[in-house]
Amino acid sequence: MDFSNAQKLDFDVQDFEFPVPRDRKKNAYAATLSPFSEQSGMVCFAAGTQILTPRGEIPIEYLRPGDLVQTRDNGIKPIVWAGSKTLDANTLSRAPYLKPISLSRGVINSSQRMLVSPLHGVVMRRRNGDEYLVRAMDLACMPGGKARVAEGIKTVTYVHIMFDQHEIMFANAAPAESFYPTETTLHAMDDKKSAEIYDLFPALQRNSTLSGYGEMARPMIAFNDLPEHERALGGW
């Protein structure tokens, strides 16, 4: 497959800031987040993440608009937008808060380690059966070490795919979210790239994400509502 025709996600590093867990015991990683606000536009998988499709698992960087992906809630869906951006060693050195989070098999029940951007949401199930999205960054802020900053990564290509609504798809066999176009996400892109999404979803220019695109596939849980230690995630 040729990924060269897919729409590309572009952004300025200075635009990216993300939530700071508060009122909870924090590990060393959490302490590095304190200079940043509670908004961000970076919600992506790292290249190499295997996405489940009707043809089997395919690395996300090879997927493009029109390709079919298996979703958890709504069967097989076509991609409507795809984007990518490579952050080199210099960029990650200047903005270490953009380094990917490494999620081990033990924390998300995946087939292998998964690298995602700090704000990417993965699905967690509570003891009562309710499912929530949990930010990778919040998992990395918890004691335990199964979710951590991938400090050894010197360059990363972030990729995301978007459907006609927010979906849960299977990434390295683990349920995780597709791209969700919030106002902050769209603001972080250059005008050309945000225009591509506005062309697909013109209601986003006049309405909130909820009205113009739809609800999130799962609610996003706050850090303070997570258990104190990642080992408790299975029975919380």
Automatic annotation (TrEMBL):
Source species, domain of life: Bacteria
Lineage: Bacteria, Pseudomonadati, Pseudomonadota, Alphaproteobacteria, Rhodobacterales
Protein's name in the database: Hint domain-containing protein
InterPro entries (UniProt xref): Hedgehog/Intein_dom, Hint_dom_sf
Species of origin: Thalassococcus halodurans
Domain named Hedgehog/Intein (Hint): residues: 43-182
Transmembrane segments: none
